[in-house]
Amino acid sequence: MRFLEPLNPPIRDWRGLRVWLVGGSAGIGAALASDLAARGARLALSARDADRLAAVAADCPGSLALTMDVTRGVPEYARVRDDLLAAWGGIDLVVLNAGTYRPMRAWELEPEAVRATLDVNLLGVIDGVASVLPTLLAQERGAIAIVGSVAAYRGLPQAAAYGASKAALVNFAESLYLDLAPRGVAIHLISPGFVATRLTAQNPFTMPALMQPEDAAAEIVAGFARGNFETHFPRRFTRLMKLLRVLPYRLYFPLVRRVTGP
C-alpha cells in the first residue's frame, strides 16, 4: 500500500556516498561524522572552529575539512560547494546541522541575541538549501537533511528564541518536501530530544531521557535507512512531546507549568 512506503529513498549503503556535513566539529555532528566514515561515506566537514574541525576530520580518514561560517550567507556556502564539486563532481547528501542555543526566558529577551540565534539556526539552513539545491536539481537526485529539535513542537520555558527558530525549520522542511520530492530531491527532518553537548550543558535543569551524541548518530543513520521524512529520538520522550502537540492550550499550559515550574 502506497501510504506505507517510505517517504524518501532509504539510504542503507554509505560506501562512496558523498556527504557534506555542516556543523561537524562537535556534538551530534562529530558523532555522525565518525559513524558515517566507518560506513565508508566520503565526507566533507564544515564548521567555524578550524581546530575542532581538524580534530574530527583526523578521526575520519579521507574526509575533507572545509572551514566556513553559516552566518556569512550564500556566498560562504557557494565557496565551499564549488570546492566540493571540483573535488567530487557532485553531492549526494547535505546535512545541515550547524546550530546554537542560549537559554532565554521571555523577560530576558535581547533582540541581538535572538537575531544571532535565527542567523545560525534558521537563516543558516535556508542559505544552505538555496546554495546546494541547484546542484541537486541538476543531478535529479540527492538529499538534504535538516537538524531541528523537539523544542519545535510547542512553546517551552527558556526557549523563546531557540524554539521559535526550530519551529520555523519544521514548516520549512515540510514545504521543501512537497516541492522537491517529486523532483528527485529527498528531504529529511531530524528532531533530537536532549543530547549531551556543549550547548545543552547550559541547561540548569535535569534533562529527561538525555542521550549521548553517539546514540543520537545511530538513530539518525537508522532514520536514513528507513527513508523517514522525520526522525525523532529518543522515542520514549519524543512521543510524549508529540502527544503534547495535540492538547488544547487550556490543558497544555497548566501541565507544562506543573512540570517546569513558573
From TrEMBL:
Keywords for this protein: Oxidoreductase
UniProt cross-references to Pfam families, sorted A to Z: adh_short
Gene Ontology, cellular component aspect: membrane
Molecular function in Gene Ontology: oxidoreductase activity
Record bears the keyword Oxidoreductase: yes
InterPro entries attached to this UniProt entry: NAD(P)-bd_dom_sf (IPR036291), SDR_fam (IPR002347)
Superkingdom in the source lineage: Bacteria
Family (UniProt): Belongs to the short-chain dehydrogenases/reductases (SDR) family.
Name of this chain's protein: Short-chain dehydrogenase
